[in-house]
Specification:
The chain contains 8 helices and 9 strands. It has 268 residues and is α+β, with helices and mostly antiparallel strands. The chain has 3 domains: 2-128, no CATH class; 145-215, Phosphorylase Kinase, domain 1 (2-Layer Sandwich), CATH 3.30.200; 221-254, no CATH class. The strands form 3 sheets. A 5-stranded antiparallel sheet has the order 5-6-7-9-8, with helices on one face. Strands 1-3 form a two-stranded antiparallel ribbon. Strands 2-4 form a two-stranded antiparallel ribbon. A hairpin with a 4-residue loop joins strand 8 and strand 9 (211-215). Helix 3 (27-52) runs antiparallel to helix 4.
Length: 268
C-alpha cells in the first residue's frame, strides 16, 4: 500500500514557488506541494469570482470538491501505514466552509457573507510525520542588543545558543500606523520570497510582536571598505562589485522587483 501511494505521489506536479516550502525529494512532500499548489490556484480563482459576479464556475466547483475528497482519502490512506498528513487550521476552515455551497453542476453561487480567502504562499499548508524532524527545545532566553533604527523599525541582534550563531531581529515600532505596519509586513513577504546567495536571508514573522528574524550582517559596505581601503586588493574589490550587481540583476530581471534604496550603507 505504501508503494502504491508513493508511486502515485511521485507523479503529482506542483509550482516551483510552492516546492520551496516542502521536501519534494520525499514522496509525501511532493504530494503536499501538489495539494498546496492546486488549492492556491482554486482559491485565487474563487476570490476573483467573488468580486466579479459572485458565481464560482462549474468546472472549478467540481475540481475543488474532487480535490477535497483526494486530500481526505490521502490522509486516510497514509494513516493506515502510520503516517500523518495534517492541514493548517485556516485552510481547513476554508475547506469546511466551501463544501457548504459548492455544487457539482451549474456552478456554485458564492454567499454574500464570503469574506475571501487569505492565500498562503510563503508558509507550508500541509505537515506530515514523514517529513518532519524534532528540534531540540533548549528553552534558553537571550537578551537582544539594539544595533540600528529606521523610520519604521528597530533592529536587534542576538546569539542563538542552539546554533552558536548571531541572528538579527527587525521589529516594527509600536508608534507606526496601520498602513505603515502593512508596508512592514509586505517588506517581509517580499524578502522571504527571495532566494539568492547575495541577498539577505529572511526567516520567520512573529505576529504577536510584529517582527521577523533574518540573517545578521557584520558590516555595511561603507564600513567594510573604510576599514580595508589601503589593503583591499583589486580582485576583492571586483568580486564585491560583481556580487552587488548579481544581486541587483536577480531582483530586477528575475523577480521584477525595483530596489529604490541602494547606498553605501548596504549591509554585507
Amino acid at each position: 500500500m505504501r508503494d502504491d501511494l508513493f508511486a502515485r505521489f511521485n507523479e503529482m506536479s506542483y509550482e516551483p514557488s510552492i516546492a520551496r516550502l516542502y521536501d519534494v525529494t520525499n514522496s509525501v512532500g511532493r504530494a503536499m506541494a501538489s495539494f498546496h499548489t492546486q488549492l492556491n490556484s482554486l482559491f485565487d480563482f474563487m476570490n476573483t469570482k467573488a468580486k466579479v459576479n459572485g458565481h464560482y464556475n462549474a468546472n472549478e466547483s467540481r475540481e475543488l470538491l474532487d480535490l477535497i475528497e483526494r486530500i481526505k482519502s490521502t490522509q486516510a490512506g497514509l494513516k493506515q501505514i502510520g503516517i500523518t498528513l495534517e492541514i493548517r487550521d485556516d485552510y481547513q476552515r476554508v475547506l469546511d466552509e466551501v463544501t457548504q455551497f459548492l455544487g457539482r453542476s451549474g456552478g456554485s453561487p458564492i454567499p454574500e457573507s464570503f469574506a475571501g480567502i487569505a492565500v498562503v504562499e510563503y508558509e507550508p499548508v500541509f505537515t506530515s510525520s514523514e517529513t518532519e524532524i524534532q528540534l531540540t527545545d533548549t528553552r534558553q532566553r537571550v537578551q537582544p542588543k539594539m544595533v540600528g533604527e529606521g523610520a519604521y523599525a528597530i533592529v536587534y541582534s542576538y546569539v542563538d545558543p542552539e546554533y552558536d550563531k548571531k541572528f538579527a531581529i527587525k521589529r516594527a515600532k509600536t508608534s507606526i500606523d496601520a498602513k505603515e505596519l502593512q508596508r512592514f509586513r509586505q517588506e517581509f513577504d517580499i524578502l522571504h520570497s527571495l532566494n539568492f546567495p547575495y541577498v539577505l536571508e529572511v526567516y520567520r514573522y512573529n505576529e504577536a510582536r510584529n517582527d521577523y528574524s533574518m540573517e545578521f550582517c557584520d558590516s555595511t559596505l561603507e564600513a567594510f571598505i573604510a576599514a580595508r581601503n589601503t589593503s583591499l586588493p583589486f580582485g576583492s574589490r571586483r568580486r564585491i562589485a560583481l556580487q552587488f550587481l548579481y544581486a541587483l540583476n536577480y531582483l530586477h530581471n528575475t523577480k521584477r522587483i525595483l530596489h529604490r534604496d541602494i547606498s553605501l550603507g548596504t549591509s554585507l
